[in-house]
Amino acid sequence: MDFLPFATGAILDNCVFAPAPWRWTRDELTKLLASGQSELFYHRPDQARVDLWRRVQRVDVTRGAGIEAFRKKSPAQRVVEINDAAAELTRILYEQPLTAAAVAKGEAIAGEMIRAIKEDPGSVAAIGKLARHDDYTYYHSARVAAYSLSIAVSMSLTDNERLRAIALGCLFHDVGKSRIALDVLHKPGALTPDEWELMRRHPSFGIELVEAAPNPVFDQTAREIILHHHEKIAGGGYPHGISGQEIVKEVRIASFADMFDALTTARPYQVSRTRYEALDLIRHKLMPNVDADVYKAVVELFGKGSA
């Protein structure tokens, strides 16, 4: 058998460390490491999976500073750095399969984002500097999660489990787009009817991916966000055309955040609007499609003197 060494102390997602078909469980690997095992090995055909695991592990909200030092920073500073880490994770999700390690990293990012925004919901304003970032596709999910958490906390939704579901659902809400070619996702002009039909399928693709992922951690609310974030209060959205109270509150929050970020971000086919301009446009042209209470919460966050 042909084996390669892996760094001391590593635990991988279902990689082979003994002749096939044996696979070590996480508990077994933990016990090996605790007993002083100095080196682990993986089977050469698992090289790509090992490389993916390593890449996911390099996503670090603390930028190597350590969690205690990171949490001493202001909530606004932390929100910006968390968004950077979430964007890098999203980039990986668009290029590689969804693994248990990636989901676990998403959970860790969500936890830090919840902590920072509960300390100061207004800290979400700090991500405005990212709104014109060239990597819209990768930063979008991070901003939607941050906006959604701030809206939720402003609406007195402070239960950590509900916030966790919102954060995870938003961080992974567009994961289904990983099944769509980048030249379609980044197309500067109008989509063809076939391209648009494919794009409308990304919520369904996303549900398929998270349900097939190892050790799924997405509860029903997170799944609702992934599947229904393009539904509209007045109906006519996709994929199911549900409306009104059929759309759960967390989804209404996430769908507003998704729209708000799209309106305030520059893209090849659109000049970005200020937050004030976006809120004004929603009020006068898009209100039938959004939850009025969510709109009011965002006005309280950004409406006064927002640029």
Brief sketch in words of this structure:
The protein is mainly alpha-helical and 307 residues long.
Q: What do these coordinates show?
A:
The protein has 307 residues and is mainly alpha-helical. It folds into two domains: 3-50, no CATH class; 58-303, Hypothetical protein af1432 (Orthogonal Bundle), CATH 1.10.3210. Helix content is 54%, strand content 3%. The chain is built from 14 helices and two strands, in the order βαβααααααααααααα. Helix 5 (100-119) crosses helix 7, helix 6 packs antiparallel against helix 7 (160-171) and helix 11 crosses helix 12.
The proportion of residues in beta strands is under 5%
Indicate how many domains the architecture comprises. Answer: 2
Q: Give the helix proportion (percent range).
A: 40-55%
Q: First CA to last CA: what distance?
A: 62 Å
CATH superfamily of the largest domain: Hypothetical protein af1432
- Remind me, CATH topology of the largest domain? Hypothetical protein af1432
Neighbour order of strands in the largest sheet? 1-2
Number of strands: 2
CATH architecture of the largest domain: Orthogonal Bundle
Instruction: List SSEs in N-to-C order.
Output: EHEHHHHHHHHHHHHH
Shape: globular
The structural class is mainly alpha
Q: List segments where confidence is low: pLDDT < 50 over at least 5 consecutive residues.
A: 1-5, 7-11, 13-17
> Count of DSSP helices?
14
Mean pLDDT across every amino acid position: 85
